[in-house]
Amino acid sequence: MIAFTKIYFxxxxxxxxxxxxxxxxxxxxxxxxxxxxxxxxLLALAGNWLSSKTTLGAILGLVVSALLLGRFLPAYLKKGVxxxxxxxxxxxxxxxxxxxxVLSAKGGQQAPPAGQTGLxxxxxxxxEDAKR
Length: 132
Description:
By secondary structure, this protein is mostly helical. The protein has helices at residues 2-27, 30-52, 54-79, 85-108, 128-131.
């Protein structure tokens, strides 16, 4: 699931940055450009961190997704204009779901006992008779 979420965050990053650029080109909105590019960079960073810093990457993806949802959902409910709100709402909700799934899967994993890598079978425990 981490690999899929990583790809999703990269795609979400590209679409968010492209949306900010389109907002700038169509309406001359510098805030759209800045917010889109910054959000895109943060989502790409979240995707990149999923490989090495899984928890941090998932949390960053969750936070950015929540912030984007918090920006676009109220605007859609107030104005009723579908573009770009509806695609961003859908993308943000998917980002939230994937972030939660990665975090819950990560939380379910336990580190192997000391001295074991998790790749070899566990060493048999010594019986009481063998210890004496």
